[in-house]
């Protein structure tokens, strides 16, 4: 699954995320967040080389249960999962390399 440019209309439940097979990146943020917008080219470039990694883009905010279950405080927060288990996390990524290093932890 390639880079997802749009947030999901309906986010998955935590149970659904916990059951995801393989490598997945769950991105928490909002369309209007400047930090989120600046991270998009970095994330897109890093994911282009990893077509086997699923990318789930979840709009976050007060009262959003999935983000609260991961204790998301700042946007964007990237959660790197292998078979539904958190392996790595990046808050406000600074570089494509930083994202690639986290991706290597869930694809190797």
Describe the protein's architecture and organization.
34% of the residues lie in helices and 24% in strands. The chain has 108 residues and is α+β, with helices and mostly antiparallel strands. Helix 2 crosses helix 4. The radius of gyration is 12 Å and the shape is globular. The model has no long low-confidence stretch (mean pLDDT 96).
How are the SSEs placed, and which strands pair?
Blueprint: H1 14-18, E1 23-29, H2 34-48, E2 54-59, H3 65-69, E3 77-82, E4 85-91, H4 96-107
Parallel strand pairs: 1-2
Antiparallel strand pairs: 1-3, 3-4
Helix pairs in contact: 2-4
Report the average pLDDT across residues: 96
In whole angstroms, the N-to-C terminal distance is 17 Å
The largest β sheet comes out as:
4 strands, mixed
Total of helices: 4
Cα-atom radius of gyration: 12 Å
Low-confidence stretches: none
SSE string: HEHEHEEH
Q: What is the tally of beta strands? A: 4
- Can you list the strand order of the major beta sheet? 2-1-3-4
Please state the overall shape, judged from the principal axes of the Cα atoms: globular
Helical content stands at 25-40%
Global structural class? alpha+beta
Beta content comes to 15-25%
Keywords:
single chain; alpha+beta; 108 residues
């Amino acid at each position: 699954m390639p880079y997802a440019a749009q947030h999901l209309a309906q986010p998955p439940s935590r149970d659904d995320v916990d059951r995801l097979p393989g490598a997945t990146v769950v991105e928490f943020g909002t369309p209007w967040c400047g930090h989120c917008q600046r991270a998009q080219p970095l994330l897109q470039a890093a994911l282009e080389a990893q077509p086997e990694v699923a990318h789930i883009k979840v709009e976050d905010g007060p009262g959003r249960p999935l983000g609260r279950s991961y204790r998301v405080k700042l946007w964007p927060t990237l959660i790197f999962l292998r078979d539904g288990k958190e392996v790595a996390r990046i808050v406000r990524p600074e570089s494509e390399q930083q994202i690639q290093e986290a991706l290597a932890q869930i694809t190797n």
